[in-house]
Structures are given as C-alpha cells and as structure tokens.
Amino acid sequence: MTNLWEDLETGPNAPEEIYAVVECLKGDRNKYEYDKDIPAVVLDRVLHSNVHYPADYGFIPRSYYDDGDPFDVMVLVEDRTFPGCVIEARPVALMRMDDDGEQDDKVIAVPIEDPRFDHIEDLADIPDQTRAEIDEFFSTYKNLEAGKEVETLGWEDKAAAKDAIRHAQDLYAEHFG
C-alpha cells in the first residue's frame, strides 16, 4: 500500500508546484490525520470549538517541519474534496503560527486544475476576507481544549512559502533520508 507521506513526491515541480494530501475538509469540524503506520486517514478528534475548516487542509508529502510533523498546507477550494485526496497545488502565501510554543506555519495554496484560482498568484491576490477567516479559524480552533495555546503571527508572500517548503524538504531529508 502506498504511503502518501513517504512514497509520494513533494510535488511535480516543488516548491513551485506541490502535492497537498487532504486530511480535513472545508466546512467540517472533524480533525483527520494521516497515520503513516496504517497508512490511512483516521479521525483524530472533533474540534472542541464551534468552528469549521475554511479550506481543505492537509500536508505536503516528503516534508517535515519545525513542529515535528509533515508541513501543513491549506488549499483554497470552492468545493471540498475528500480525506486522502491529492491536489496538485501552487503555493501562494505562508501564515506564520505558534502552537503551544512550536513553530507551526501553514502554506496557503490554490489548486492548479481549477481555473477559478488562476488569478491568485501571491499573498496580495488572496481576498482580505479569506485571509481573515483563515486567521480567525487558527486563532480560535483550540480555545476550548484545555491547556492549548495558539497564536497566529501574520502573513508572508509566495517567496516565503517556497522557502519554507524547501526548509521542510531539507528537514525531511535530514531526518528520514
């Protein structure tokens, strides 16, 4: 069975074009996680706060980030996909975040195969409302979980997102060969 984190390339032309493995769906409160030992997407928990994911959310294959997990990616979509779906995506921004004292940044990307997102090339092209919803989601989604503290730390452009992806690829190579 294919392991989507270890067997799939980071992307067809990373960091310009990446693969995003979807775990959580736009509009859902279910927090799914890819379990590489099974390998399958499993239900980790239901979010304690009454919020929902503002876009499809998952990870970038063959990446490893400073928080000790695969690098997170949020793909802006009109219609949600499904857990385990692989989306060919173009990074357009980076949201900096601290989760319980660990750097837990998020790549924001758009699907390459959806012409409704062709005009989004960089941070400035993401509507202010979309950025505000993403920021609000990550600022509040753990509020009702005891002892959890999350802080969003601002937005950076496409160049920063690509640099962070390279960093995550380097960390993956360092830790896993």
Automatic annotation (TrEMBL):
PROSITE patterns: PPASE. It is found in: Cytoplasm. Its cofactor is Mg(2+). It is an enzyme of class 3 (hydrolase). Coiled coil: none annotated. Transmembrane segments: none annotated. Its EC number is 3.6.1.1. Mg(2+) 2 binds at residue 72. Gene3D superfamilies: Inorganic pyrophosphatase. It catalyses: diphosphate + H2O = 2 phosphate + H(+). It holds the Pfam family Pyrophosphatase. One of its GO terms (biological process) is phosphate-containing compound metabolic process. Mg(2+) 1 binds at residues 67, 72, 104. GO terms for cellular component: cytoplasm. One of its GO terms (molecular function) is inorganic diphosphate phosphatase activity. Keywords: Cytoplasm, Hydrolase, Magnesium, Metal-binding. Substrate binds at residues 31, 45, 57, 141. InterPro entries: Pyrophosphatase, Pyrophosphatase_sf. Catalyzes the hydrolysis of inorganic pyrophosphate (PPi) forming two phosphate ions. Belongs to the PPase family. Homohexamer. This is Inorganic pyrophosphatase. The lineage of its organism: Archaea, Methanobacteriati, Methanobacteriota, Stenosarchaea group, Halobacteria. The gene is ppa.
